[in-house]
Amino acid sequence: MKILILNSGSSSIKCQYFINQKSVAFVVVEEITKINSISTIKYNEHTIQNNSFIANHEEALDMIFTLLLESELLVDINQVDAIGHRIVHGGSKFSEPLLIETQSLKELEEISYLAPLHNPHNLKAIKIFRDKYPTIAQVAVFDTAFHQSIPEYASLYALPSEVSQKFAIKRYGFHGTSHFYVAKQSAKILQKELTELNLITLHLGNGASATAIKGGKSIDTSMGFTPLDGLIMGTRSGDIDPAIVKFLMKNDNKSIEDINTILNEKSGLTGICGSSDMRQITTQAQSGDTQSQLALDMYSYRIKKYIGAYSMALGRVDAIVFTAGVGENSAKVREMVCEGLEESLGIKIDKEKNNTLQGYAIDDKSSKVAILVIPTNEELEIAVQTQKIIEEC
């Protein structure tokens, strides 16, 4: 089956082309609407770049098809069996992938207010395809869907019920596609059924989240109503005292928009030490930079707190799973996160395995909990879910 996976943002569109669940090409169009638009395709051992001006999303999608056709991986656009779209927010309504039809598209538009920076751009690509290629099936796969299994006592905030209900305020969680993918891979590695396992999955990239998974179901996650909640991230603060917002408005003459920018774009690792690149932060810390060391300490400590909390929520933990850019590549972060957890939780890392990373497991033979490093593949997971929906139709 030939499937295109699209992630449409405000100024870029990323696309992967799968044939029978194998990725054969990656295409990205960046700086849409800007003079220095860049379009790149990677396939086999080829990388081809085009620097022509892309005025809007429709032109960006046309460019994606042009590059795929020129690569000869695709002879005709109508050969595509389906298009899978990464949709950031599915609200409370959507807990499964969705075949996009007129009614479902309307329902998706109605919940766009929950993710105003993301969903409208996701939907823009869907509408363009419906207009230009109406016979090609489209499927929405939601970042929030995996977390719909979180029970009310864990998902609701202690706000007045009428406020929560009126504005649909709850812990939605994000990165669900990634957490679900690495959970399934963990089951294969441990040679057990996913329904038998209790896992804590750590998606540590520029955005970061932790999820407690019991028997294959998400029962809690660190991101909340928005992706700002939870762990310290590249530029996001994660958990803070909400009264800080009022304090800054009153004492530093900040507007709501000012504070939103501070919390989302100028905080986290960037706010602490001036960089969101964990490689640079680690190098600077080793060279004696105190702010970089502080950033590492704060970052790993916050993750460690969530591991402790989720261990209590799960009752038994079979594996800790590190994934995404930092989780997969930073041995230092993995070591710092696991340090000191042996006596309390039976978690002990093997430093040599952690540093050499030959295979998936990095736990010491005496560890009561497996420690795994698993590369995430959200696009493949979206392709798998898209194909399943098409086959069921």
Give me a quick take on this structure.
This protein is α/β, with parallel strands linked by helices.
Task: Please characterize this protein's 3D structure.
The chain folds into two domains: 141 residues, ATPase, nucleotide binding domain (Nucleotidyltransferase, domain 5); 183 residues, 2-Layer Sandwich (Nucleotidyltransferase, domain 5), CATH 3.30.420. An eight-stranded mixed beta sheet has the order 5-4-3-2-1-6-8-7, with helices on both faces. Strands 11-10-9-12-13 form a five-stranded mixed beta sheet, with helices on both faces. The protein has 393 residues and is of the alpha/beta class. The model has no long low-confidence stretch (mean pLDDT 94). The longest helix is centred in the C-terminal third of the chain and has 25 residues. 41% of the residues lie in helices and 19% in strands.
Provide the fold topology:
Elements: E1 2-8, E2 13-19, E3 22-30, E4 38-43, E5 46-50, H1 57-71, E6 82-87, E7 98-99, H2 102-110, H3 119-132, E8 137-142, H4 152-155, H5 161-167, H6 176-190, E9 198-204, E10 208-214, E11 217-221, H7 243-251, H8 256-265, H9 268-273, H10 278-286, H11 290-314, E12 319-323, H12 324-329, H13 331-338, H14 342-345, H15 351-356, E13 370-373, H16 378-392
Parallel strand pairs: 1-6, 6-8, 9-12, 12-13
Antiparallel strand pairs: 1-2, 2-3, 3-4, 4-5, 7-8, 9-10, 10-11
Helix pairs in contact: 10-11, 11-13
